[in-house]
Amino acid sequence: MPGLARPRHAPHIAPMSRAPLALLIGTVGLVLYVGVAVSLADHVVARHWALALAYYLVAGLAWTWPAMQLLRWGLRADGAG
User: Fold this and answer.
1) Cα dihedral sign, 61-63-67-68
2) Strand runs (DSSP E) across 4-59, as ranges?
């Protein structure tokens, strides 16, 4: 499916870039992720130091893959799908 076509009645208006939308989604998603990760950490830290270490390692890196995918989507050409 080709990208969105410009409306014929307003050819001087370019389609909106994905970057602002990706920034908004990423910011909201990161704030929600941090909130959930901190809430779960309260339960994990009290158990054992090794469990806390593993949790912080996983929770500290788990957000990177979705963020990378969102960046790729946001920076892709608008018509690329």
Assistant:
1) positive
2) none
